Amino acid sequence: MLKEKIRQLAKKYAPETIEIRRHLHANPELSYKEFQTSVFVKDRLKELGIPFEVKATTGVVGLIQGKNPEKRVIALRADMDALPIREENAVPYKSKNEGIMHACGHDAHTSILLGASRILNELKSEWEGTIKLIFQPGEEKNPGGASLLIKEGVLHHPTPQAIFGLHVHPGLEIGKFSFRGGPSMASADEIYITVKGKGGHAATPQLSVDTILVASHIVVALQQVISRNKNPFTPSVLTIGSFQGGYTTNVIPSEVKLMGTFRAIDETWRFQAHKLIHQICKGIAQAMGAEIEVLVDVGYPVVNNDEKLYLLAREKAQEFAGPENVEQTEVRMGSEDFGYYTQEIPGCFYRIGVMNEAKGITSGVHTPTFNIDESAIEKGMGMMAWLGASINYDDNQPQ
Questions:
Q1: For tag attachment on the chain, is the N or C end more exposed, with fewer CB atoms within 10 Å?
Q2: Which residues of the chain have pLDDT under 70?
Q3: pTM value?
């Protein structure tokens, strides 16, 4: 039975795949600079005899053909980049690259996909269709490696019926998976505001434009975008995270800069909010005699999991891991460039538990102490291989 064979191979190859994860963790590379990681992935695919091509400089796209290759095409995606964080974990595989760390689990994602690739390749006479392997650069930084790969044709020749991606979840116990249909992760846009005006002495504000005061009013007023314009049943967040202006006690500066982020789960509301942000900022500046520049840098879209694919994947996950180990993913206001794929083809982005309180593995992603329970590697590679081999999106029938 295919499911049992996948489980057996996942167990067999888990130790070697954990070593792959440790190598990647010790040698992290920043977004769009995954040069050695890309070489490592290509070398592993060469060893397996899996053909591949390079896209977006460091992206690697492999292809495994099973029986009747044209019957269906399923894409499996993993991201490869790390973060500019100094690791604080005392582990043998601690980052060797000062100030760079796999603090979001992309080392695990890449290892899991390599492990799943090995399983699928070994069993390719026992499943039908084609599996497209997408090892993606630059998930952590705009414009997002997914958008670059899509522009370079990653979703063509052949075109996948559906795409799966996974992410480690430090709040989910080891051994569990979680899925969600529909909008599951927020869009992410960056806000840049510059307030300008005639500076001057703090003791004579009537002779100046108080840019600090103008910017302060803007920070407060922008919260009305959420509190008085958004549907209260639709999650959304607007946060100003940087307020830069002035350099001493008795000078009104001529310029103040604000930076922030805007998150939304609804794409229509997202762009309505952009207009409101511009209107509020310009209205306050005009009323208070200041000049203003407003940039809303459009980033990643909402991750919108296809409902049909979600139901198929959840059912298959329950078969593979047991119903007690499959949960509902919460809506998250974090973002993922996997959303670009879900705008093009049916996609399902799911979570794998990596938390183990007994071992003290509880730190969140993007922290210097983030780590995973490495038994997640076996579970992850097995599940990804199973989803790739068993789901037929078109006719809703298992292979």
A1: N
A2: 395-399
A3: 0.94
